[in-house]
Amino acid sequence: MQYKWTLLRAGQFLLDGGGMFGVIPKVIWERSIKCDEKNRIQLMHNCLLLESVESDPLTGKPHRYLIEAGTGDKLDEKMSSIFGLDGRTVESEVIAAGVDVNDIEATIVSHLHFDHAGGLTRKAREGETADWEALKPGAASGESTQIKFTFPNAELIVQRREWVDARNNDSVMTRTYYRDHILPFEDDKQPISEGKARLRLVDSKRPFPLNRKPSRGEAPKAPLEERLTEVLPGIHVFLVPGHTWGQQAVLFTDETGRKIVFTPDVMPTHLHSGQAYSLSYDVEPYTSMITKEWFLREAAERDWVLVLDHEPGNPLFRVKSNESEWFELVEEVSC
């Protein structure tokens, strides 16, 4: 199945430049991107709205799916200011694209950090009955404890390993797996319809066995085809560990025949294409480096069009091998 797709810019996001470039010194990275007086660089919440080219024979409508959900609206004023949020959310951008939030049938998130999954839920508005309430201290990511599902009819698709780590709060950051964008999806009192669960956990084959350190430059033994999981018609996910152990990329074919890969925090911007350019937030920077090499090699050999999750400029790139036995990104002009 092929898909039309729309790039959703679900709001600005400011993060510390040192955190975003890890071991790379500021004197190096600031040649390419400037920071503000608080050392923050501008990023973006990039999400994708997918619409099937073929309509469903029963409803006459295309199937509509969402990749990634951004931060959303639940952070309080202080945290919103720290991260430079501008009020746009994945909900506002889906509506701006002319799509009813009730028509989204599934959401796929790369991982469950708040800047990728926070928008799965939102604050209940005046006159609304909450779908879920944050009763325990620390369960709410902001001041509001009354929570609604942003996309009421959508199941959430995520890797099982990511869900387990999120539930255990296994992260180098103390507040990134917020309970109010995770726990509502486990509530068996909140099915989508006819008992269908809101949460679908995926077990994609890992590129390397657990508890074995791959060598520099080592490629996964199993081909990518064996590590792909088809989660929706024509939409596949595969593990790209390092930033988190359960982080996944999303692969689909668009209406022009291009292979599109939504690329998570293994390479959040085009400035992170260098081998050592990992994030301070990565649970395993070495694994991120190994993952990036085989990921870029696959992208070059398969002529993927990558959509980078935090790129503030044009996030579309193809990958080419270069004379330095590494890779360069070539901007793709059109969505």
Any idea of the CATH topology? Answer: Metallo-beta-lactamase, Chain A
Global geometry = globular
In CATH, the architecture is 4-Layer Sandwich
Radius of gyration: 19 Å
Largest sheet, in brief, is:
13 strands, mixed
Structural category: alpha/beta
SS summary, helix count = 8
CATH-defined superfamily: Ribonuclease Z/Hydroxyacylglutathione hydrolase-like
CATH class: Alpha Beta
N-to-C series of helices and strands: EHHEEHHEHEEEEHEHEEEEHEEE
Give an overview in words:
The protein is α/β, with parallel strands linked by helices. The protein has a single domain, classed as Ribonuclease Z/Hydroxyacylglutathione hydrolase-like (Metallo-beta-lactamase, Chain A), CATH 3.60.15.10. 17% of the residues lie in helices and 28% in strands. It contains eight helices and 16 strands. The strands form two sheets. Strands 1, 2, 3, 4, 8, 9, 10, 11, 12, 13, 14, 15 and 16 form a 13-stranded mixed sheet that branches. The chain has a three-stranded antiparallel sheet with strand order 5-7-6, with no helix packed on it. β14 and β15 form a beta hairpin. The protein is globular, with a radius of gyration of 19 Å. 43% of the residues are buried.
List its traits.
alpha/beta, 335 residues, 13-stranded mixed β-sheet
